[in-house]
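The protein record filed below.
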Amino acid sequence: MTDEAATVAHIDLALVDDCLERFFTVSSARAQAFGRPSEELWRVLRKASMGGKRFRPRMVLTAYAGLGGTDVHAAANVGAAYELLHTALVVHDDVIDRDWSRRGQPNVAGSFRDNGTTGGLPLPTAEHRGMSAAVIAGDLALAGAPRFIEASGADADHRARLLDLFDDAVFASAAGEMADVDLTHGVMPTVDEVLAMERAKTSVYSFEAPLQSGAVLAGAPETVVAALGAFGREIGIAYQVVDDLLGVFGDEAATGKTAIGDLREGKRTMLIAYAATTECWAELAPYLGDPDLTEERAAEMRRLLVHCGAHDAALARVREHTALARAELAALPYDLAVRLEALVSELVERVR
């Protein structure tokens, strides 16, 4: 990315932050009429939306700018829609996973639980309060997100198409989340079932829909919109496999994420689904999902995942889907293809 392009991207993402800040300022003012619990709900939800890398808005802005779009305020609003959707889905996902923190800090549920215990509530009651607040907060973010598309200023036809893409993303994510719940508690899924779940749960709303939305907003032909969807699907799958690899083999100092959490949780990633088909599984299975898993035992599990071929199989899938994504660049205008090629390298070679 050139210095000029980086400056433009920075400005555009600042506009996304402005859109979100206005949304939370107005919502917080409205909450005052309903009393302190409502005000606290919006304060905590606003905090949950802060500090991210604005990854999904970047997808919108990259496609939009690469296709000649010039209305940065319209693009920022569409980007804000996907960022608020991300906040909603993360808040709800934490409820499903019964998590009380995110990135080392109390999440929405954890904040309301902790406030409850500080106020004298017994722990079970405080935990119910926290989970309830998180469900409500996620609902508020989910309901508010499409309003940014309405505020984008896009004409009626483009707005309808943008709302359809957004709705498809929500629909797919819900289906993927439900599949994730069932895969966690059912029989061991196949590698393809895991990747299909991850694509629906995360890749559609993180890659496919934002990229296509940027194209639609820029007035691109449907062939370009379709090619961006295919590119987003393939790079999204590659991204998820890299994420699964980092969740077990990543350098915690570089990623900022624990490399033992997925093993303690018993998360059914591609690595685990592949390993379950090998002779190493008998040694791995007893320790997968052990909340008291030690670092020494985790190191042995990593060795087994390498020995059984799961690590190499995951890397092969990353290469396969990255190549398929790059193949879609031929159908895109040169300037956009160059921007997306740089994005490919960043996504599959990332350490964070």
